[in-house]
Design goal:
Number of strands: 0
Shape: globular
Number of domains: 1
Radius of gyration: 16 Å
Distance between the termini: 16 Å
Strand content: under 5%
Helix content: 55-70%
Order of helices and strands: HHHH
Length: 150
């Protein structure tokens, strides 16, 4: 069964909460400002919801209406690049060292960002391919929706 847009959103939210938050908590422990990793996770979630609308539209042209896993993996890299660009984009009317993403300073190191983003993304990607099928066997038959009246 091909995931529906609503199913993609539910799965993304579920995996970000169950997997992304604990991993982010580990990064928050070593971060000088503890809340920046959580703010980044929130922006990744919001950006992911937006990307899912685009992905859903693009998939209407594919015969099986789904991405091969390798394309989904590379799509995560594109999402990360876009999020990194947003963290470094500033406007003249903003305070110094403040990106257009509220709460994220432009002084965020590229290594910190990519290590955190990669750890969350790869873990969630693997969980979506393996763990979701094991823990919720009906998940894929309901278009990826896990809140669909089991």
């Amino acid at each position: 069964m091909t995931p529906t847009l609503y199913g993609r959103w539910q799965t993304r939210l579920f995996l970000m909460l169950v997997i992304g938050v604990p991993i982010t908590a580990l990064f928050a422990l070593r971060s000088p400002v503890w809340n920046i990793p959580f703010i980044l996770l929130g922006y990744a979630l919001i950006l992911g919801f937006s990307w899912d609308v685009l992905y859903d539209f693009v998939m209407t042209w594919r015969w099986n209406r789904d991405w091969p896993p390798v394309l989904a993996f590379f799509a995560g890299g594109i999402e990360g690049c876009f999020l990194w660009m947003l963290t470094n984009f500033t406007l003249d009317r903003l305070p110094p060292n403040q990106s257009i993403l509220l709460g994220i300073p432009t002084t965020l190191r590229v290594s910190d960002f990519w290590f955190h983003y990669s750890a969350v993304w790869i873990t969630i990607f693997i969980a979506s391919l393996c763990l979701m099928h094991i823990l919720t066997p009906r998940w894929r038959y309901r278009g990826g929706q896990w809140m669909a009246g089991w």
